[in-house]
Specification:
24% strand, alpha/beta, 310 residues, six-stranded parallel β-sheet, 10 helices
C-alpha cells in the first residue's frame, strides 16, 4: 500500500482512485462498510482503491486543548487498511489551508483536481468543509459537476440497535468493556508506542516492564489488563499490564507498563503494539512492595487464564 501525504502536484500514478473519505479513527466496522463501498466502485471502474484521511485529525486542529481522544496512530491505520485491499492511503495535512476551505473548495481543489478521484464513498453522517457545511448530498452534487460519482453507506448498528462508531468504541474503553470495543472495531484495541526508560522499580521485585507513553490515545479505564503485544521483530507475546498513574507512586502522566510473560530482552527504543484483551481490575494502592508483588502474581495468573481462552 502506498501512503501519500499531500494532495498537491501529485504524479498521475497517484491519481484516479475510487476513495473512501473520512477521519476513519479506529477503522471500525462502520468505517469498513464505507471502504467496502469504495472497493465496489474501484472494481467496477477498474481503478485503484484509496482512503482519504487526515493528519492532524481535524478535531485536534480545532480543539487544541481537548483531552486525548485518538483510537490509533497513522501507522496503525495503515496496518488496518492493508487487509481491506486499499492501494493508496492519502494522509492529507490538516492545516490552516485545509481548515479554511469551503465544502465546494474541498471537493474541487482536493478531491477533483488534487487527487483526481473517480468515485467518493462516504458515511451517512459525513460532513466536510469549513463549518462542516458539506453533506453527502452536497458532495454528490459537486461530483456531478466535477466528474466523480458518490455513494453513501448507511448507518451500521449492532444486534442491539447501537451505532457502530468511534464514539461507541471510546465509551466501551472508558467502561473497561474490551469485548464490546473489539466487536465494534473488528479486532482488539491496541496501543502502539516506543518503549521508554522508567523508574525500574518492577525489576526489584522480578517484574520488569516495558513502559509506553499514551500520547494522544484516549484513556481507557485505568487498571490492569490481560495483554498481547507484537514486538518489532514480529513476535507476539502474552502479558499483563498496568495502565494509569500508579496511585502508589503518583505518576504525573498516565503510562502503559507491560510485563511480557516468559520474555527476556532489551526493548528500549523499540515500537511495541499492545492489544488490551481484557480489563482485570481497577488501580489500587498497596501497603508496601510485598503486597504489590502478591497482587501482581495474582494478576498474572488471571491474565494467563483469560489469554488461554481468547
Amino acid at each position: 500500500m502506498r501512503v501519500v501525504r499531500d494532495w498537491r502536484d501529485l504524479p498521475d500514478a497517484a491519481k484516479g482512485a475510487a476513495v473512501a473519505v473520512g477521519a476513519f479513527d479506529g477503522v471500525h466496522r462502520g468505517h469498513q462498510a464505507v471502504i467496502a463501498d469504495a472497493k465496489a466502485a474501484a472494481d467496477r471502474l477498474g481503478a485503484p482503491l484509496g482512503v482519504v484521511s487526515f493528519d492532524l485529525h481535524p478535531r485536534r486542529w480545532f480543539q487544541k486543548d481537548a483531552a486525548p481522544f485518538r483510537l490509533m496512530t497513522a501507522d496503525q491505520m495503515a496496518q488496518a487498511l492493508g487487509p481491506l485491499g486499499v492501494d493508496i492511503l492519502y494522509l492529507l495535512p490538516f492545516d490552516a489551508e485545509m481548515a479554511g476551505m469551503s465544502d465546494a473548495e474541498f471537493a474541487e481543489r482536493v478531491l477533483a483536481r488534487g487527487l483526481g478521484i473517480r468515485h467518493a464513498a462516504v458515511g451517512f453522517d459525513f460532513t466536510f468543509g469549513k463549518g462542516r457545511s458539506g453533506s453527502p448530498e452536497a458532495l454528490r452534487t459537486y461530483g456531478e459537476r466535477l466528474g466523480f460519482s458518490v455513494s453513501t453507506a448507511p448507518r451500521l448498528d449492532d444486534a442491539d440497535g447501537l451505532k457502530l462508531s468511534s464514539s461507541a468504541v471510546r465509551e466501551a474503553l472508558k467502561a473497561g468493556d474490551m469485548a464490546r470495543a473489539a466487536v465494534i472495531l473488528g479486532r482488539p484495541f491496541a496501543i502502539q508506542g516506543q518503549v521508554i526508560h522508567g523508574d525500574k522499580r518492577g525489576r526489584t521485585i522480578g517484574v520488569p516492564t516495558a513502559n509506553v507513553p499514551l500520547g494522544d490515545y484516549m484513556r481507557p479505564a485505568y487498571g490492569v489488563y490481560a495483554t498481547r503485544s507484537r514486538l518489532a521483530d514480529g513476535r507476539v507475546v502474552d502479558g499483563v499490564a498496568s495502565l494509569g498513574v500508579r496511585p502508589m507512586y503518583a505518576l504525573e502522566t498516565p503510562l502503559l507498563e507491560v510485563w511480557l510473560f516468559d520474555f527476556d530482552g532489551d526493548l528500549y527504543g523499540q515500537t511495541l503494539d499492545t492489544q488490551l484483551i481484557a480489563w482485570l481490575r481497577g488501580e489500587e494502592t498497596f501497603d508496601g512492595l510485598d503486597a504489590l508483588k502478591t497482587q501482581i502474581d495474582a494478576d498474572a495468573a488471571a491474565a494467563r487464564a483469560v489469554l488461554r481462552g481468547s
